[in-house]
Amino acid sequence: MFDATTHEKGAVVLEMLRYVVDGADALWKPASQDEPLFQALHRYLTAHRMQTVDTPDLIAAIRSITGQELGWFFREWVFMAGYPEYRVEAKYDGERKIERVTIEQKQRVDAETPIFEMPIELAFYGANGQHRQVRVRDNLQRQEFEIALDFEPLWVDFDPDDFIYKSVEFDKPLESLVAQAEKDPSMMSRLWAVQQLVAAKSTETDKRIETLAHILTTDAFYAVRAAAAAGLGKIGTERSKPLLLTALQQQKDSRVRTAVVEALGHFSKDQEIFNVLMRALQSDPSYAVQAAAAKQLGRSGVAEASEILQAKVQTHPEIHVMQATLTGLASTGDPQALEVLLAQAQPGLSERIRLYALAGLESFPESVTKNHSEALAGVVRAALHDQFYPVQEVGEELVGTFHLMQFEPDIQNEAKNAPMAMERDSARKILEQLGQQK
Questions:
Q1: What is the pLDDT of residues 222-265, one digit of tens each?
Q2: 172-267 belongs to which CATH class?
Q3: CA-based, 20 to 30 A from 4: which of 115, 217, 237, 376?
Q4: Which residues contact residue 169 at a Cβ distance below 8 angstroms, ignoring those fewer than 6 apart?
Q5: Is 301 left (phi over 0), alpha (psi -120 to 50) or beta?
C-alpha cells in the first residue's frame, strides 16, 4: 500500500477530479465547501456514515449534486492504468484565420490502458499581447480542432497549468519557446518552456544561454529560476560559468542557489569553480546549498576534494550536510575516504548517517575493500541485525555487492521469515545474486 500509485497518483487523480467538476479556476482558490465537488463529498460522507461503500457510491453522490455523469473519468483514472502520452501540433491558417491543433495519443492502448477522454485547456498568445483561451474535449486517438483566431499566435499552450497527468511532445520553434519562457503568465508553462529550451537541438546556443540567463535573474517563481540555472549547467559552455557565479552571489532564495551549485558542478575541475564550491560548503547559510556543494566536490575528480570532505566530517555538520558529505566522499574513490565511511557506519551512530555511510561503501571496488574486509564484515553484520529496515536493506545490498557468503544464512532467514513482502522480495533478489556469483 505504500507505493506511488496509491499515494502520488491518488492525489493527482483527486486534483484532476476537482478540475473536471469545478473547472480550472477553482484550483487557484482555497478549497471551499461551496464548490460542487466538496458538496458532493459532503453528501457522500453523510449519506454513508458508518456504512460500507465503494466507488459507484462516490460517482452517484457527485451525480446527485452536480448532475455530471463521471463514470468515464473513474473508468480511465481509477479502474484502468497508464496516462495519456500526447503528441501535439499547431499551425495557423492566415487566410481562414484558423489555428489548427492536432492532438494524438501515443500511449500503447490495451486491455489496461485506454484512450483517455479529458477536457484540455488551450491558450494562444500573439506577438502584440493578444490572448485567447479555449477548452476542447479530447477523446480520440487522433483528433483535430480548428480554433477561430484573428491573430497569428507566437506560441500555443497545451494544458498551460499542467492540470492533467500526462507526457507531452510539442515541437516549437526557438522563437516560440523563448517568448513562452519569458512572457507566459502561467508558471507551469514557463517551466516547461525552460526545460524545452535546454533540451532543444537548436544550434543557436548563444540565444538559449541569453534567455536562460535572463530568466535566472528575472522570473518571479523560484522553480523557474532554478530550472534556468540547471539548464545553464547542462548546456555547459564557457559563457555559462560567469552567469552562474553571479547568480550564486545574487540569488537570495536558497533553493535557487542550490540549483546554481549543482549546475556549477559541471565545471568543478576548473580551479576557480572548485574554490567557489569549497566556500559554499564552508560558509553558505543554507544547509541545502552546503549539501549540494559537498556532492559536487566529491564528483569533481580533484584530488583535494577528499581531504576537504574528510575535514568536514570531523566538524559533525548538520545531518543533511553530513549525508551529502558522505556521498561526496564515496564519489572520490579515495581509500582514505573508505576508512571514514566505515567509521561512520558503526552501530551506535545516527541511523540516517549510518545509512549513507553504508550506501557509500558500495562505490568502492573489491580491490580497495579487501584490505578492510574485517571492518566491512563487522558493519554489515551489525546492519543485517539492525531494527531500522533501511539499514538492514543496504546491509543486504552490500552482501550481494561484495559476495559476502558468510552472511548467506542471514539472507535466507530474511527471505523466509521477514514480516513484509517487500522485505522478503528484497532478500530473495540478494540470494539470486549470490547464486549467480557462486
A1: 999 999 999 999 998 999 999 999 999 999 999 999 999 999 99
A2: mainly alpha
A3: 115
A4: 85, 86, 87, 88, 106
A5: left
